[in-house]
Amino acid sequence: MARFMDIHDGFVGVTEEQLAEAHAADLAVEGEEGVHFETAWLDPESGKVFCLSTGPSKEAVMRVHEKTGHPTDQVYAVDIVV
């Protein structure tokens, strides 16, 4: 499985609880696309959310986020780890 980092904008002022709800929504449907979301991070000041996942393709990651109401086209393969 490939590893991906995706970025969402527009989450200014979102709380930890709200981020947890959005992450749980992804987890609820991730299996439909063969994706697994490992971790989500939030910078509430900038409104950016970063999600780390594994899956078959960036398009699969994008479809999960689309299904759960927080789409993004900023999905990057992060294959090199040091």
Verbal overview:
The protein is α+β, with helices and mostly antiparallel strands. 29% of the residues lie in helices and 32% in strands. It is built from two helices and four strands; from the N terminus they run βαββαβ. β2 and β3 form a beta hairpin. The protein is globular. 20% of the residues are buried. The model has no long low-confidence stretch (mean pLDDT 96).
Morphology: globular
- Report the strand count: 4
Instruction: Quote the beta fraction.
Output: 25-35%
Share of residues in helices: 25-40%
User: Radius of gyration from the CA trace?
Assistant: 12 Å
Task: Identify the quaternary structure here.
Answer: single chain
Low-confidence stretches: none
Kindly name the structural category: alpha+beta
Spatially, the strands of the biggest sheet line up as 2-3-1-4
Average of pLDDT: 96
What sequence of helices (H) and strands (E) makes up the elements?
Answer: EHEEHE
